[in-house]
Amino acid sequence: MRQSEDSPAVAEAVQLLRAKGERVTVARRAVLQVLDGANGHLCAEEIAACVDDAEPGVHRATVYRSLQSLAELGIVAHTHVPNSATIYHLRHSAGAPVGHAHLQCATCERFFDIPADWLAPLAQRVRDGLGFELEAQHAALLGTCADCRAR
Hints:
Its cofactor is Zn(2+). The chain is an alpha+beta fold.
């Protein structure tokens, strides 16, 4: 995909990269495009497979390094999932609202996005009681979804 064909979310991410003095490589752009086009949460393996389909010359290790650097730059968000691979999403994607947290059903393993501010009372209580700063967007809370509870 050429730069002129970038979605608004990818164009914004590319602009952020440039504003931070970072290079916009084929691999980074491909990762951004895959994340922007994703219908859900993707792990690094899934992202690498999609990048390989779109840009066969990009090595898998380069995709992993791109994910790491994009996460360090705050352009891509990652969430650690218990007993599973870390998932990624583009922070500036319309489908991935900024400041959201994740719930995962322990039965069907589906993910649910919730506004991070729903966890604000818990975060405040943890801060007050333990002096611990909770980063809810970096972890998935486990539970059982309504569909699985109804079975």
